[in-house]
Specification:
By secondary structure, the protein is mostly helical. The protein is 66% helix and 7% strand. Strands 1-2 form a two-stranded antiparallel sheet.
Length: 137
């Protein structure tokens, strides 16, 4: 970052979230609510399996005997899945609202040398286009 600011003092760097596909977002939201429901059932000691006429599995019995550990496991495991669903791995670079790099398309992050070369080329092209347009006007 510091190298970019030294080379291009007027550059503005912004970051924002790149949203995943709606199916993943909705599933992550559902999982978030379901997690709270399961934690609540563990804490109050209600057996949801009895309501549907099933025998409680061993993991549920273990959770009733170890409520703190069970709640922590449900919380951290579901958060891990939610984060995975919401992560896109996107690293998109635009210059003057024109895309110049996409990790989603290339599959990797640019090296600092590649990034500087991309920015140099784009800046030269912008300067060339701006001076060319001034001659036309």
């Amino acid at each position: 970052m510091q190298a970019l600011y030294q080379r291009y003092p007027d550059i503005r760097i912004e970051g924002e979230n790149y949203l995943p596909v709606p199916l993943y977002r909705h599933f992550a939201s559902f999982l978030s609510v379901f997690k709270l429901l399961v934690i609540g059932l563990i804490i109050i000691g209600r057996d949801p399996f009895a309501l549907i006429g099933m025998q409680a599995p061993g993991i549920w019995e273990w959770g009733q005997g170890n409520k703190i550990y069970a709640c922590m496991m449900v919380f951290f495991f579901s958060n891990m899945i939610e984060n995975q669903l919401m992560s896109t791995g996107a690293f998109e670079i635009t210059l003057n609202d024109v895309p110049v790099w996409s990790k989603l398309e290339s599959g990797h992050l640019p090296s600092m040398q590649q990034l500087v070369q991309i920015l140099d080329n784009e800046m030269k092209m912008n300067v060339h286009m701006n001076t060319g347009s001034h001659h036309i006007s």
